[in-house]
Specification:
By secondary structure, this protein is mainly α. It folds into three domains: 2-52, Ubiquitin-like (UB roll) (Roll), CATH 3.10.20; 65-158, Up-down Bundle (Receptor-associated Protein); 174-405, Up-down Bundle (Receptor-associated Protein), CATH 1.20.81.30. It contains 17 helices and three strands. The chain has helices spanning 25-34, 47-52, 65-80, 85-95, 99-113, 118-122, 131-143, 146-202, 209-224, 228-243, 246-258, 261-283, 288-297, 302-316, 321-328, 333-345, 348-404, and strands at 2-9, 15-22, 38-44. A three-stranded antiparallel sheet has the order 2-1-3. A hairpin with a 5-residue loop joins β1 (2-9) and β2. α3 packs across α4 (85-95).
């Protein structure tokens, strides 16, 4: 049986969309008619059909990290309980309320029932199931330990989701603080400062330098402030367009690696992702050279990706992983030392996992510290801005009092 997406009219005349399983499109239409519905469109529930027919899928057919982690954990739990894969997929599809997940799961189940492997079925949805995910599932199928591999993938995706959620929650208050600060300062500059400064300018008094700066900023915001949001949006659009050019993106990614603080964060994050991916793949019986190719494909930095492709070539020609990663030049020394220890002891996959975990802990600690410092820094910045405004207003008043005395 295969999964089909449909659009049909109910007895009351409402248009209904959904997914069902049938042996053919004709059988799917018969099911709809048996339910008292008039079929309008029926098509196989695959990503290619979704991309070609926008009426069936709204938005991208990909899955978020949260949904992917939950789906992986559910499949692993059912397989561990001894339930066959096709039954596990059917149970998940029947109980989920998310229509996008239901469409994807039913389509995958249909391919499995047709005789395709689980990894091949997942290949119909490359945006929902990344290359790393599919390669690991394929290795789990070949080794006969699909449930254990899926549990490891579930842990990996859940850890990603937890860290991302932690950072997002920690940034909510600082971002709200920034928004309030911008609104308050803009309101002062546009509505309060001009009326106060007009008293001093009308008297012909020579204004102090801070007050002159404040007046210039206030005049600029009042006259041209409405242009700031469109200009910022235009700059973002231009940056996005430029970053789509391979040459520009390659140079920018290279420069990012050389920056003092940002470079360390990028190097640490990319290294942890690469080594963590290697650990999952080699632990799932994927050959090292093939695992390096897949792990390099999940990197988001083009410059590092190119260097790691050269490292893969070196290992393919018989070189050691430690030497190849040393030649890359941007992998933390501690990770290389742990990898060398794993190679010499014959426990490379376990040592790769430890190296990735250690680097991720360091990175999470650094990001958490940065986010924690962001709030007091914003408070100090807001206090400094307000202090400057107050001093710029008070200085002419103090000068007038001295003249009167």
């Amino acid at each position: 049986m295969a999964a089909f997406q449909y659009a049909a009219l109910t007895a009351s005349g409402r248009k209904n969309r959904g997914t069902l399983e049938a042996d053919s499109a004709r059988a799917a239409r018969q099911q709809l008619r048996a339910k008292g519905m008039v079929p309008l469109e029926v098509a196989p529930a695959t990503e290619s059909s979704a991309a070609g027919n926008a009426s069936f899928l709204s938005g991208s057919p990909g899955l978020s990290v949260k949904h992917l982690a939950l789906l992986t954990r559910q499949i692993a739990t059912l397989l561990r309980a001894g339930i066959p894969l096709e039954e596990a997929l059917g149970a998940i599809a029947s109980q989920t309320r998310n229509q996008k997940i239901r469409r994807i799961v039913l389509a995958v189940r249909g391919k499995v029932l047709e005789g395709h492997s689980f990894a091949q079925a997942l290949g119909n949805f490359p945006r929902a199931f990344p290359n790393l995910y599919r390669a690991t599932v394929e290795a789990g199928e070949h080794s006969g330990h699909l449930d254990a591999v899926l549990e490891r993938l579930g842990d990996y995706t859940e850890n990603q989701q937890k860290f991302r959620q932690k950072v997002q929650l920690a940034l909510i208050y600082p971002m709200m603080l920034v928004l309030v600060c911008v609104l308050v300062v803009t309101g002062l500059m546009v509505y309060v400062v001009p009326d106060v400064i007009e008293v001093f300018t009308g008297s012909g008094q020579l204004l102090p330098l801070p007050t002159q700066i404040l007046v210039a900023i206030s005049d600029f915001i009042a006259a041209w402030g409405w242009l700031v949001p469109p200009v910022l949006i235009a700059l973002v659009v231009v940056a996005i367009v430029m970053m789509k050019r391979p040459g520009v993106r390659y140079r920018v990614h290279h420069r990012l690696l050389e920056l003092p603080l940002v470079g360390w964060l990028v190097r640490s994050g990319q290294s942890a992702r690469y080594v963590g991916t290697l650990a999952i793949l080699t632990g799932s019986s994927v050959p090292l050279v093939q695992a390096m190719g897949i792990a390099g494909g999940v990197m988001s930095n083009d410059f590092l990706k190119e260097r790691l492709q050269a490292a893969q070539k070196s290992v393919r020609e018989g070189g050691s992983l430690r030497r190849a990663l040393e030649d890359v030049g941007y992998i933390p020394p501690m990770m290389i030392y742990m990898i060398a220890s794993g190679e010499s002891s014959g426990s490379l996959d376990a040592m790769l996992g430890r190296a990735a975990e250690s680097q991720e802990q360091d990175l999470q600690g650094a990001v958490t510290a940065f986010v924690s410092l962001f709030e007091p820094v914003m408070l100090l910045l807001m206090a400094a801005i307000v202090l400057f405004i107050v001093m710029a207003i008070m200085m002419p008043i103090m000068s007038m009092n001295q003249m009167v005395v």
